[in-house]
Amino acid sequence: MRYSLAEIAARIGGEVIGDKDFIVTGIRSLESAGADDLAFAEEKFLPQAGASRAGALLVPRAADNLTQHLIICAQPFQAAGMLMAEIDAEAQKIPHTIAESATIGSGVKLGDNLHIGPGAVISDNAIIGDNCRIYAHTYIGKEVVIGNDTHIYPGVVIREGCRIGNRVIIHPNSVIGSDGFGFLQIAGRNVKIPQIGQVIIEDEVEIGALCTVNRAALDMTVIGRGSKLDDHVHIGHGVTTGSEAIMCAQVGLSGGVKIGDRVMLGPRVGSADHISIGDGARLMAGTQAAKSLAGEIDYGGTPAIPVKQSLRQIMAATHLPKDRSRLAVLEKKVEELEQLLKQKTQ
Amino acid sequence: MRYSLAEIAARIGGEVIGDKDFIVTGIRSLESAGADDLAFAEEKFLPQAGASRAGALLVPRAADNLTQHLIICAQPFQAAGMLMAEIDAEAQKIPHTIAESATIGSGVKLGDNLHIGPGAVISDNAIIGDNCRIYAHTYIGKEVVIGNDTHIYPGVVIREGCRIGNRVIIHPNSVIGSDGFGFLQIAGRNVKIPQIGQVIIEDEVEIGALCTVNRAALDMTVIGRGSKLDDHVHIGHGVTTGSEAIMCAQVGLSGGVKIGDRVMLGPRVGSADHISIGDGARLMAGTQAAKSLAGEIDYGGTPAIPVKQSLRQIMAATHLPKDRSRLAVLEKKVEELEQLLKQKTQ
Amino acid sequence: MRYSLAEIAARIGGEVIGDKDFIVTGIRSLESAGADDLAFAEEKFLPQAGASRAGALLVPRAADNLTQHLIICAQPFQAAGMLMAEIDAEAQKIPHTIAESATIGSGVKLGDNLHIGPGAVISDNAIIGDNCRIYAHTYIGKEVVIGNDTHIYPGVVIREGCRIGNRVIIHPNSVIGSDGFGFLQIAGRNVKIPQIGQVIIEDEVEIGALCTVNRAALDMTVIGRGSKLDDHVHIGHGVTTGSEAIMCAQVGLSGGVKIGDRVMLGPRVGSADHISIGDGARLMAGTQAAKSLAGEIDYGGTPAIPVKQSLRQIMAATHLPKDRSRLAVLEKKVEELEQLLKQKTQ
Q1: Which of B173, B317, B338 has its CB closest to that of A333?
Q2: Other CB atoms closer than 10 Å to residue B101's CB: what's the count?
Q3: Rounded-to-integer distance, Cα C310 and Cα C169, Å
Q4: Active-site residue list of A
Q5: Residues of A in contact with C313 (CB under 8 A)
Q6: B194 and C88 in contact by Cβ < 8 A?
Q7: In whole angstroms, how far apart are CA B324 and each of A123, A304, A327, B312, C255?
Q8: A215 close to A199: Cβ distance less than 8 angstroms
Q9: Do residue B91 and residue A196 have CB atoms under 8 angstroms apart?
């Protein structure tokens, strides 16, 4: 990255106060930016922005404490986001070529403008849309269908028959369409229930690194449009999620769970199988959902209860050792009172 | 899949009521089956089976509410399982060939009828039995021994010297025989304890995607015959499990733990190191075992206690905020009583 | 391995009592060692060492109950560690060659004495130091810098621009530099915040199998010198750790967390985002840190509190069902006392 402030202002629709020809070579946070960097600050961070060693600042307005070169724009974070996206695109630029060492099966249909990396395996009858990146060492199973503009990072495994939408991102070494976990106990043995369903990943879904989204036993596991999964998330067989859900790292959803739209699951949230979680419900970090939960409510605890109750319960529990002593003291006093009254009555 | 009901009835030993030549092209659940699908229902699900849009049903008996074509058989679920296994085998059919891009080390012994996928690495002196599938991008270390009929899915890494049994399944990107986690603190530095033990995976074990089974420091980490691990399970160095154990997703067992036969560990169960869990013990989701646990008992909680106690404790905890108020009220009343009695006595 | 006791004694500076020409072919624990094995016992394990079937023992002194051949040395465990390191080095020996099937990008700088395994991808302008092992199916992104003597096990993915130090070990299928998890909710959609920061892994860090260390949004995610991560550890974007930290399996640190030197995190420890944990703090298994924690203290619980308090609280909680009954009994008694006093007063 190497831009003059004038170029940046033009691109984001801002105005330079200071040297228009000043060159910045990176975007960093207020704390770590250096003399060649651009940093940004929303209104509420302007007081501390003056202390930043950034050479230039993206800010909503000038202020006395800001001695850096400035670019003034209405929404600094969003403007920075546009620049960050350009930097990201540049950093991840990759040739639209198909590596010689890739294995392309029979009957495969490939779209235009693809990157298929070294060693990638595209199995028979798979269909890949336009502008996709199928990075090195990926394994795309038989009859998998992938839409347009989708990025499949190195080492991802997508097993046979799964369907991946448009503008989907799957981060490295995740596994889509692996067998669900289903066994019958017959005569003391664990007998495998074949898992013949599939997985559907809808448009604009992002799946973190090292996630598992298991194929359904019979029907479909579905990750709804625009949902985002952080790393190490486990989605059991037959789970369906609504659109625009957020699942933080290390979440685990057991088989058959139904998640509504816009549900937010904090880190390490877990669920029992076959429960449902309503639209807009939010589960704090570590919440364990044992039963179905109504939508538009915040939950916490093990098992999940409304978060205010959960916090009151946690707070009350911190007093437990002391409260036990108080209880014992009371018991003694009441016994003494009983004795005393008994004596008086006699 | 494309079968007439007569063909299916013949294969599973059932009887058709309705059109013997009716063709089904899939097996689905009662809820999602369509006009070309076969669904199945055990006795207790017959009431709702009438509403299924399935073209045909596998059921234990005819009933007035069932207007679909029927196949009558004693055990519908088991019969469906047979068909599902056939469909699964067909969907996963793969040529018994060794990819040109695979790397086969010196001294390797390969059985008959193998699939070795693109880019697979079989290191020096490894031994692979008959009918195995060693998928793309797998890494089989030096002197690894793999039995017959075993499937190693894409991206799995098995490090040097590990021994894998017959009819074992290891799902994508799992890691077997990686170093156990052992360090000595010497003069403020973490000094690595070399991990020179091995891993033994016995016959009929199934290991989910993205699991780790670490090599022992000195001896053996053992996963016992018929045990099944879901995804994201972590097995520390020197753990040994009995046969037919079940470990759900995201379970973590620390070093040296001994697990008995038929133990069932729910999702996210964890354990302290070097404890033992007796035969047939069952740990509910999220249970954390801090000490050794006797067999044939169900456990819950953190730390693990018998599940009934754990549920009573969880239930009691929900009353904590209210109970604290009750305690405060009582303290006040007792103080008043004491005052009153004191006055009376004077 | 095949050594005479004389050879071992010479190497570790010990003294043989028994047959100097006795040959051992392995090192095993006291419990599992056989007639050809060497086992070792520190002073406190000498009583049970007599029962070991080991052919020879490494011990701090002779004792009446020890009938095996002995090697006497001051620190048996450390001496055994030296031998284990040799055995480990031998077991993992690998040719210093670059596989023909590896893909080396343009502008790549390769050090001396490298192993680059089959199918490894080294992207444009990456720099690899001397004596590194870059195993099969690894993906090293553009402009990644790797120091000397570093081992990158099979299937590891390191994305563009990350910097890996000297003598680092990264175990199989881990992912370094994947996007951090950052989204803005705009008009009901989850809009990705580009992640343009990097990851720095300092010297002597060891990262387990199937870990994720995410790139920062803007700045740097840093794993400090000598820190050790077990398997399945998740490090969010912008986390920084001090030196010589220990993180056990399945730990998850949310974005922006700051960890001090020598911090120890037990299995399944989690943290809220943007908190700090002071030097030398130790968090027991499963502890969830919701707020910043002072150093040099041991913590437990959810949320984290000093471990002694946490244990007292856990202990008190086990009495909850009984204490609720005690509370109800007291309420009844106090009511009766109140009635009685009222009657008396009338």
Answers
A1: B338
A2: 19
A3: 35
A4: 237
A5: 317-318, 320-321
A6: yes
A7: 64, 21, 10, 18, 36
A8: yes
A9: yes
Give dist(CA B153, CA C230) in Å, integer.
24
Residue C48 CB neighbour total at 10 angstroms? 12
For C173, nearest residue in chain A (alpha carbons): A173
> Is the pLDDT confidence value at B346 over 70?
no
Residue of A nearest to C102 (CA): A118
The burial class, CB within 10 Å (0-12 / 13-18 / 19+), for A281 is buried
Q: Which among A103, A212, A270 has the least Cβ separation from residue B268?
A: A270
Q: Is it the case that residue A8 has pLDDT exceeding 90?
A: yes
Question: Would you call B99 and A101 a contact, using CB atoms and an 8 Å cutoff?
Answer: no
C-alpha–C-alpha distance, residues C48 and C50, integer Å: 5
Residue B342: pLDDT band by 50, 70, 90 thresholds?
confident
Phi, psi of B13 (to 5 degrees): 70, 45
Overall fold of domain A3-91: 3.40.1390
> Per-residue pLDDT for A344 more than 80?
no
Q: For C327, phi and psi rounded to 5 degrees?
A: -60, -45
**Minimum-distance CB partner of A230 among C181, C272, C302:** C181
Q: What percent of chain A has pLDDT over 70?
A: 99
Looking at the predicted structure, is the pLDDT value of residue A340 above 90?
no
Cα Rg, chain C, nearest whole Å = 28
**B103-308: which CATH topology?**
UDP N-Acetylglucosamine Acyltransferase; domain 1 (2.160.10)
Query: Tokens 């946070």, residue?
Result: A29
Across the range C30-47, mean pLDDT stands at 96
Per-residue pLDDT, C346? 67
C3, C75, C137, C264, best to mutate vs chain B, most B CBs in 10 Å:
C137
pLDDT computed for residue C53 by the predictor: 97
- Nearest CA distance, C36 vs chain B (angstrom): 14
- The closest of C242, C248, C240, C179 to C207, measured between CA atoms, is C248
Kindly give, in sequence order, each residue whose CB lies less than 8 Å from that of residue C116, ignoring residues fewer than 6 positions away. C97, C98, C99, C102, C104, C110, C122, C128, C134
With CB atoms and an 8 Å threshold, state whether B194 touches C321: no
In this structure, the number of other CB atoms found within 10 A of the CB of residue B2 comes to: 9
